[in-house]
């Protein structure tokens, strides 16, 4: 009944969330259960952040083309410290998963 009367809906497109907090539950086969509560991250403006002299961007991927695509995105978002930090975080994945580096 909750799906038909609107109390629960399948999210198939971006929607506004009242209060900005959402809970996600995943019940998997074999007893793998995961639960998380998410809220929007406050985005700091880059205007107040001092600019470093130079930033070295590390990239990894399963193919050479993937590494080139990551480095290109890094160039496109060169002033977004949050984005660049996420890319650098991914670069620490073991080489067996992402053998190409740049």
UniProtKB/TrEMBL annotation:
<protein>
    <submittedName>
        <fullName>Fatty acid synthase</fullName>
    </submittedName>
</protein>
<dbReference type="Pfam" id="PF16197">
    <property type="entry name" value="KAsynt_C_assoc"/>
</dbReference>
<dbReference type="GO" id="GO:0016746">
    <property type="term" value="F:acyltransferase activity"/>
</dbReference>
<feature type="domain" description="Polyketide synthase C-terminal extension">
    <location>
        <begin position="1"/>
        <end position="102"/>
    </location>
</feature>
<dbReference type="InterPro" id="IPR032821">
    <property type="entry name" value="PKS_assoc"/>
</dbReference>
<dbReference type="InterPro" id="IPR016039">
    <property type="entry name" value="Thiolase-like"/>
</dbReference>
């Amino acid at each position: 009944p909750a799906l038909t009367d609107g109390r629960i809906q399948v999210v198939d497109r971006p929607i506004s969330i009242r209060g900005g907090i959402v809970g996600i539950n995943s019940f998997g086969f074999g007893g793998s259960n995961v639960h998380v509560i998410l809220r929007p991250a406050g985005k700091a403006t880059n205007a107040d952040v001092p600019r470093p002299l130079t930033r070295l961007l590390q990239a990894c991927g399963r193919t050479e083309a993937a590494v080139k695509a990551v480095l290109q995105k890094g160039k496109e978002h060169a002033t977004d410290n949050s984005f660049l930090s996420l890319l650098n975080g991914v670069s620490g994945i073991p080489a067996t998963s992402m053998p190409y580096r740049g």
